[in-house]
Design the sequence.
């Protein structure tokens, strides 16, 4: 800040009668920051910080302009009509610079979180653009023109003009290198990008984000891409969609913000996020009109929306309105000149011992035929190669596959229509990318495993089939896509094994020291055989009841365990976290304890030979259900409540990729196990003494001596902790179902993580934050259809799944 601005800031503060400390508290800015700004020693300050101070001081528009003048010209706030109707489009200020009237005043913590988010988003999408080989050899020349008038709002509304003011002619045409500049010409900050399937909408959205973040006058709002494929606007509000997406891909934003709530929610509420909503056409058919209506309820929110034209047009007719305040552009088809400039450069020269240049002329005959347009084959192929998707598939199949000849694409006998050509390119993509080649080395120096194309297509087809209806392929959703009976059976079997083995281990090591009776291996085995299945059934019943408390599949953990210290000056709320977790887990513990009570009764029946229908046995069963339910319910509720207090958001890079999210969840699960075993053991032992003491006079006599406390506590702690980690966490279900059950049945490979990473490297999958997606929705649909055809013919299906 300049000396003049610092002097003005000091004068305004003193005029308001505030000390630096009082101003810092009111504005949510550090005292040292204010001191450096007033003395002119801060050469690297943020526009949003200065706006926070101006808001706290109730600065006049003239003083605000003087404070922010050295950073950026005073912006016109969104939703405010232009003061001069004859203003030129180039003078229109983007609606998201600095602090806007519609934004909630942001604290220093929010500004810092927005800056960190911007850096992470930029790194992530730059890496993804490189992985998709968009710049190689150069970006395809995607161009656009203004969308039809019936798919956009009135120009007066888009330009936010007062009544009677004539709209200006704003040129929205451009190409892939000017998408950010085109957006800046839109006064409302709302843009719809339309195009046919495969026309490059998603790639354009990535380029828009990168260009906007790298601009010298970087926006106050951070552009973040959100997929809309699985959005149900009737159950999930737009704000919740944005917050959930931020928490999934950036788990550090789960940290508490000033005033309560998460940083993710605070960033959305403060208007510091510019949503780039990708894939409106992937929303379910009957929900697009409702989705458009939902978007129209927040007209002042700047956003970018991508969609195929036909689906968007139908939604406009259903909602009786386009996206309000939104301008629109429609992507154009690639031309023959575009193809002639691009495809030959994708066929690199290969040394053949002569000067012919190898494959450099691979596309010459095809381009000559396309330019002539004299045959039906050339007309069909020109119609297919109008989109970047099909051009990319053709490049992979012919420019990058030795021995292939693109002239076969002109054969009308094999490919009589454009649809046949497109299916050929889609069908040939997987064999092309999985062709045998020299093995590459992985990051640890080991050669990467070669994948058979037929098996890879079968496994990818299964993933596409299970992911039908959505684009995001999260590793935790693979197990969740299985039917409820399969998942419940998994919980029962896992819990049975964990509890039985725990009893055998504890009985073998502790019984000789704490039990007066002679050590009896047969009795220990019998105890495990009885308690294990009863506990497994109880855990299965608790799992079935989970949907009443939690919607959807088990989500990955976005937290780590640490001491509950205050972070960034934000007070944690341990009481609320403890209470919520205690209530749910206590009910589950009561169910499990009741199941163990029946096991104890069965053990008594076997040992003493009493009839199960004996009144004394039934009375003992009821008593044990009450006592064990209270013991295990109270202990589990207290321990898991404590665990909730110890949870803290992951660091900023923990979920940058699906592999990192999986790794962090594995680490979290291991730490949870190490914490749960001793605390749950101690909790069960202590709860037993308390419950028995309270009910001894009422329903006694009850026995809970030291041997019972040690044996039940140790076995319950070890068995309960392992059952929870392996059956109730996203990582545990990934391990037991995705890594064991599905490979065992031939539906997925054993090394699933390596397979997904390999598919990503080959360009079959792409990464969007912490999830994978198929390269394009059309490829996903093709693999889905192929998999269904395989299942209709059992012979290919068995061959594909064979080891």
Sequence:
């Amino acid at each position: 800040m300049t000396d003049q601005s610092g002097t003005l800031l000091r004068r305004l503060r003193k005029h308001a009668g505030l000390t630096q400390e009082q101003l810092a508290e009111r504005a949510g800015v550090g005292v040292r920051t204010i001191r450096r700004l007033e003395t002119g020693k801060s050469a690297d300050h943020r526009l949003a910080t200065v706006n926070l101070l101006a808001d706290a001081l109730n600065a006049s528009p003239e003083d605000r302009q003087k404070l922010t003048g050295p950073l950026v010209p005073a912006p016109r706030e969104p939703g405010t009509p232009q003061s001069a109707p004859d203003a030129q489009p180039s003078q229109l200020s983007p609606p998201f610079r600095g602090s806007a009237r519609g934004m909630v005043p942001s604290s220093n913590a929010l500004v810092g979180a927005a800056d960190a988010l911007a850096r992470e988003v930029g790194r992530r999408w730059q890496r993804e653009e490189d992985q998709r080989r968009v710049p190689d050899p150069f970006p395809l020349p995607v161009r656009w023109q203004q969308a039809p008038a019936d798919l956009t709002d009135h120009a007066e509304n888009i330009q936010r003009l007062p009544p009677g003011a004539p709209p200006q002619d704003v040129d929205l045409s451009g190409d892939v290198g000017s998408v950010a500049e085109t957006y800046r010409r839109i006064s409302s900050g709302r843009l719809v990008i339309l195009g046919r399937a495969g026309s490059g909408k998603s790639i354009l959205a990535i380029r828009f984000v990168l260009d906007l973040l790298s601009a010298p006058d970087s926006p106050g709002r951070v552009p973040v891409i959100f997929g809309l494929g699985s959005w149900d606007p009737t159950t999930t509000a737009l704000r919740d969609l944005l917050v959930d997406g931020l928490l999934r891909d950036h788990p550090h934003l789960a940290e508490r913000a000033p005033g309560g709530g998460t940083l993710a929610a605070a960033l959305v509420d403060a208007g510091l996020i510019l949503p780039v909503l990708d894939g409106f056409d992937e929303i379910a058919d009957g929900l697009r009109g409702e989705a458009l209506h939902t978007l129209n309820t927040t007209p002042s929110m700047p956003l970018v929306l991508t969609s195929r034209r036909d689906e968007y047009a139908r939604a406009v007719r259903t909602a009786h309105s386009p996206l309000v305040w939104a301008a629109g552009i429609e992507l154009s088809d690639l031309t023959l000149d575009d193809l002639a400039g691009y495809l030959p450069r994708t066929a690199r020269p290969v040394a053949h011992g002569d000067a012919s240049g190898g494959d450099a002329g691979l596309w010459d005959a095809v381009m000559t035929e396309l330019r002539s347009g004299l045959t039906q084959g050339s007309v069909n192929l020109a119609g297919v190669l109008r989109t970047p998707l099909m051009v990319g598939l053709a490049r992979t199949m012919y420019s990058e596959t030795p021995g292939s000849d693109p002239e076969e694409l002109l054969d009308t006998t094999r490919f009589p229509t454009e649809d046949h050509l497109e299916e050929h390119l889609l069908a040939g993509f997987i064999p092309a990318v999985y062709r045998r080649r020299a093995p590459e080395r992985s990051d640890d120096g080991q050669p990467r495993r070669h994948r058979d194309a037929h098996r890879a297509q079968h496994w990818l087809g299964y993933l596409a089939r299970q992911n039908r209806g959505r684009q995001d392929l999260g590793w935790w959703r693979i197990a969740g896509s299985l039917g409820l009976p399969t998942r419940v059976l998994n919980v029962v079997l896992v819990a049975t094994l964990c509890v039985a083995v725990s009893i055998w281990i504890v009985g073998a090591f502790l019984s000789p020291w704490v039990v007066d009776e002679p050590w009896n291996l047969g009795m220990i085995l019998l105890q495990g055989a009885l308690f294990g299945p009863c506990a497994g059934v109880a855990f299965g019943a608790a799992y079935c009841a989970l949907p009443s408390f939690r919607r959807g599949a088990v989500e990955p953990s976005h937290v780590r365990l640490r001491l509950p210290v205050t972070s960034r000056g934000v007070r944690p709320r341990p009481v609320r976290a403890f209470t919520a977790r205690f209530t749910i887990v206590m009910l589950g513990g009561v169910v499990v304890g009741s199941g163990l009570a029946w096991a104890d009764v069965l053990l008594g029946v076997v040992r003493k030979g009493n009839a199960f229908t004996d009144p004394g046995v039934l009375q003992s069963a009821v008593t044990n259900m009450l006592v064990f339910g209270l013991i295990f319910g109270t202990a589990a509720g207290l321990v898991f409540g404590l665990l909730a207090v110890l949870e803290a958001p992951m660091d900023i890079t923990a979920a940058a990729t699906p592999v990192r999210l999986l790794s962090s969840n594995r680490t979290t699960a291991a730490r949870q196990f190490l914490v749960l075993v001793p605390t749950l053991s101690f909790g069960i032992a202590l709860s037993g003494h308390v419950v028995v003491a309270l009910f001894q006079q009422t329903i006694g006599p009850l026995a809970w001596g030291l041997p019972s406390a040690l044996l039940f506590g140790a076995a319950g702690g070890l068995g309960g902790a392992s059952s929870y980690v392996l059956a109730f966490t996203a990582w545990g279900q990934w391990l037991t179902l995705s890594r064991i059950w599905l490979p065992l049945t031939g539906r997925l490979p054993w090394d699933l993580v390596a397979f997904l990473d390999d598919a990503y490297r080959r360009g079959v999958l792409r990464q969007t934050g912490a999830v994978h997606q198929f390269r394009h929705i059309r490829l996903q649909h093709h693999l889905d259809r192929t998999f269904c055809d395989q299942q209709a013919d059992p012979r290919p299906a068995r061959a594909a799944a064979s080891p």
Observations:
- The chain is about 55% helix and 5% strand.
- The domain at 3-74 is CATH 1.10.260.40 (434 Repressor (Amino-terminal Domain)).
- The chain has five domains: 3-74, 109-331, 336-350+357-433, 453-474+737-801, 479-728.
- Confidence is low (pLDDT under 50) at residues 72-105, 352-358, 565-572, 796-803.
